[in-house]
Amino acid sequence: MEIDLLFKIAAIGILVAVLHQVLVRAGREDQAMMTTLAGVVIVLSIVIREISELFNSVRVLFNL
Question: Do 46 and 9 meet the contact criterion of CB atoms below 8 Å apart?
Answer without folding.
Answer: yes
